[in-house]
Amino acid sequence: MLLLVYLKGREAMEKLKMIDRMVLKYLVILIVLVFVVVYHSQIFDWISNFIGVISPLIIGAVLAYILNILMEKFESWYFPNRDDKLITVTRRPLSILASIVVVILVLLFILNLVVPQLVSVVEQVVAVLPQAAVNTRDWVLENEELFPPLADFVDQLDVNWQNIVQRALNIVNDITGSFINTAFSTVTSVFSIIVNLFLSLMISIYLLVSKEKLIRNFDTVFATYLPQRYYARFKYISGVFNNSFRSFITVEVIEAAILGAMVTVGMLIFRFPYATMIGALTGVTAIIPILGAYISGTVGFILILMHSPLQALLFVLFIVITQQIEGNLIYPRVVGSSIGLPGLWVLVAVTIGGGVMGIAGMLLAVPTASALYRMLKDHVKYRNSIKESRIQTSEDFLIEHQN
């Protein structure tokens, strides 16, 4: 009897301790929430400053993650069946160097296609704009029966375009003077950016060189300090997200190249000007899912408009049709099938991500949605297997007792 009373008392004490721990946990959470609400501006400032300090590390990690995809390809091509000491020692450094060189060459190639033609177009616009305005004014006046109010307005409008151009040049000179006056601060900022980029590159190279060792160290730390259940979940979730982002980056680059080639070839077939430049610009902006081609299309329309208004309108029709084919047929099927996400959910993810975080949200939404979709499928499969196992056990139990 006394033993029973003791056990019940002990059980009651354990329940009270559990309740106290729950109350303490929720009290701490409430205090933290109140603190965040009251001091949110200071907390956000501190977080922004902290992110700014560690930004080279963040950029380096992202750069290493992207370069790692190329590096592993080069490693698989660099005498994969040979284990000579020289080959083993040089495989990783040469693969890293080749990855960096490929990225730099691609960037230089794109800039060489885009920048010279863009500068040329700007020079043409500055030279042609005054005469184009005069021609537009004369055309409106010649066809005043079509646009009477507009013709009256243009007739009363006296614009000295040479004076406007001269004022624009004066403004540019003033800006240049101001720029020279603040040269020291500008040089300091540029130097800081260069230093941060150099640090990011060095960090990414270090991460790539010693990635296996770093992965083992992190894995040991997590396995030591996390309970086995949470460690297994962490390994599973990180693996799913890694596969999703890796597949997304690879296929997104391929898809951007396909769209850039489609636009370039189509513009050459229909004899649009600036085909190579707009095609290259389309390939670069196509990294932004779904909407990238519209960005380059807007730039292309403005450029072609200076050459021929009719061709500019036809170009808009061409880019809309091309983007509809790519965005609704090719992109959801190619990207969706490669990352295991249905095409409809690719469009939904891009829409929601863009609405929440803009361009960054578009880039992160698709692989994140893919990872969540994969985990949901796995969890549904797991729950269904448990239900089937329970049903099978119940059926076996009934059959056994009926017999």
Molecular structure report:
There is one protein chain. The protein has 403 residues and is an all-alpha fold. 90% of the residues lie in helices and 0% in strands. The chain has helices at residues 2-38, 40-53, 55-77, 85-142, 148-156, 161-181, 183-209, 211-225, 228-269, 275-285, 292-307, 309-339, 343-402. It is globular. It starts with a helix and ends with a helix. The mean pLDDT is 76.
Task: Give descriptors for this structure.
single chain; mainly alpha; 13 helices
Provide a short characterization of the protein structure.
By secondary structure, the protein is mainly α. It has helices at 2-38, 40-53, 55-77, 85-142, 148-156, 161-181, 183-209, 211-225, 228-269, 275-285, 292-307, 309-339, 343-402.
